[in-house]
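QA checklist item 7 of 12: single-chain prediction sanity check.
[x] sequence parsed
[x] length recorded as 303
[x] structure emitted
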Amino acid sequence: MGNRRLQLSRIQQVLDHVHHNLDKPLAVPELAELCGLSRWQFNRIFTHQTGLSLGRYVRELRLSQAAEMLLFTNQRLIDIALACGFSCDISFSRSFKQHFGCAPVKYRQRGLPCLLKTPMSCHPDLLPPESLRSRVPGIRLDFKPTFTVAGVAGLVSGLFSDRPDFNEKLPLLWRQFSSTNYGAAGQSRIGVLDIARGSDETFTYLAGTEVQEQPETDTLNCITVPARNYVVIAFHGPLASLAEILKWFFQAWLPNSGCEALHAYDLEIYPPGLIPSAPHVSMEYWIPVKLCRPMISWDAPNC
């Protein structure tokens, strides 16, 4: 236990240094020396604790910082590029387009915080339970435009209720939806948690799929979800363990994130062919948020 805490402390020292020095060179030998490890030890421990190589983590964080600066400042492209550790605006624009799918100018014009990597922490209180850590490969800030979901709805007692029953009721709702044979083959499945009109304890859950227009049938319910910013948790594992990840997220991660959760529609997005009882399910949980401050440290006016 003591050795693990020492490893976490050393990696946190590196993460703090990285988060405040994204405009400077960040090489493995120097960072390994910073926390008193050999290069081989550093690479092994950093990847084990974060799930990423140092190079990939720094690149994604630099690009996310640049995206935030595009949205929250009027700085020139070259100044943003240099502030985020890129040698010139050409290499910055190339990397930005590869990661975000559009040029920096287009991203700024769109004005939506999409695909932003959130800074990691190795503080013990801010980490998911160790047994579940491998099931959260990433958390990001993203945006989803208005869309409509049609499906089967039911009342559910949620994570923070006295008697949660979602582990029993959700598979039943999904089986009911599957029996309707509605939706195109290969289409993603979307669960909508109507926190907007319910509460954190009891709410309506809609198991369904996205539609372009409301179906003309009385057997399905519809919810139109407005355009919002979301924090997205990528998850992989048995669905029964998702509840523990969400408890950690709301109690530890969110209060330190710079985001405020909204009482709106939470989303569960599953790939086609959903089998809720499968031992490994890959899905994303989307929490609607208001961005109260930049998620990465940089000089900017308060919002």
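[x] summary fact logged: The longest strand covers residues 147-157.
[ ] second reviewer sign-off
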